[in-house]
Amino acid sequence: MNPELPAEFDEMPPSEDSAQTSRIGTVVASQANYHRVRLEPAPGDVGDSEPVVLLCTPRARLKKIGQTVMVGDRVLVVEPDWSGKRGAIAQV
């Protein structure tokens, strides 16, 4: 139980939307301010499906704190656009 939050928050199940709004992945290619990120399979994904690769840009906050994104980094991709295959890197 988290002492900073009211008890009812600990009893609430995680929303299904929260799992779809951010995913972990690995940067496989970088050029200029764009990075190709191969996402890890979600817990419910079928094992034989092809890995999803999104074209992502880092959030401005990362540049502000001096964080650079390089090939091989594990990153958190937020707000993925599945139809456009794009996303934003929020954390390295």
In short:
This protein has helices spanning 7-11, 16-20, 60-64, and strands at 22-31, 34-39, 53-58, 74-81, 86-91. It is an alpha+beta fold and 92 residues long. It starts with 6 loop residues before the first helix and ends with a strand.
Commentary on this structure:
This protein is of the alpha+beta class. It contains three helices and five strands, in the order H-H-E-E-E-H-E-E. A five-stranded mixed beta barrel has the order 1-2-3-5-4. Strand 1 and strand 2 form a beta hairpin. Residues 5-19 have low confidence and may be disordered.
Which features does this protein show?
92 residues, 5-stranded mixed β-barrel, 3 helices, alpha+beta, 5 strands, globular
Task: Note the topology.
Blueprint: H1 7-11, H2 16-20, E1 22-31, E2 34-39, E3 53-58, H3 60-64, E4 74-81, E5 86-91
N-to-C span: 28 Å
- Percent strand equals 35-45%
Coarse morphology = globular
Largest sheet at a glance? 5 strands, mixed, barrel
The ordered H/E elements are HHEEEHEE
Radius of gyration: 15 Å
Mean pLDDT: 81
Low-confidence stretches: 5-19
Strand order of the largest sheet: 1-2-3-5-4
Helix tally equals 3
| Helix/strand structural class | alpha+beta
